[in-house]
TrEMBL record:
This is TIGR03749 family integrating conjugative element protein. The keyword Metal-binding does not apply. It comes from Vreelandella nigrificans. Residues 117-144 are annotated as: Disordered. Residues 128-142 have a biased composition (Low complexity). Residues 1-20 form the signal peptide.
Amino acid sequence: MKRLILTCLASAVLAGDALAVEIMHWERRPLEIPLPVDEERIVTLDRNVRVGLPPALANPEVLRVQSAGGVLYLKAFEAFETQRVRVQDVESGDVLLLDLSAREGASSEEILVVDSREAQASEASRPAAQASGGEAQQATATPVPVRLTRHAAQSLYAPQRTIEPLRGVSRVPMRLPESLSTLLPSLPVTATPLGAWRLDGWTVTAVKLENNDRRRAFELDPRWLQGDFYSATFMHPYLAPRGSVEDTTTVFLVTRRGGLDRALIPLEETDKAEEGTS
């Protein structure tokens, strides 16, 4: 599975009172993951993924699934038998299979998924890497935009004790209006900035998206976003009609050499573009 879900074990260790981490090796066989009822379990993949749920789990009253920055946040609200879930790497298209079940008393330990073949290749090259200052290189092997997006998602939605420390990151002022009308001008969506973080010249801004249409649902496509962004990561792949439990999500927008305030297209330019296509 090309480039899928390889992560450094050191990144799974949290500062302070660290939680135990269960390591699972992806070897082309479905991974069995039992979930506790009414308690969140975190699965770290370290790749931006989309999740395909079978009909039995598509009900948000049975299972809540949130995906952000290569991390899955899974919470079962009732017990259920084993169901196969399809997880796809957004970048490469590769697929990982999870066999999820839920029962009272199941472990809530965080899970770290490692691709066995890539892990072996990394282990084989470690002596040479250490000889040339490889430890520092390994610490920064994951691209800054990925680490920054994961940190922002965890800061907003993960329990405080599970947030991975990220050296050098700082929360920064956004200098944005309360609503970003030019971000998704073609959709009836309200875009509200939530927070911004900066590291090594990169900035990630989290923006809440709310569907204002009570009759229509929308698939979320980064090509609809208007602005100069390095990357965009949606927490969910779609917005359900207004009034449903899935009518709101968050998008994480990464920019370089400045914040989101510099990356957005001015309103007048957006209007001209719409006139040109009408």
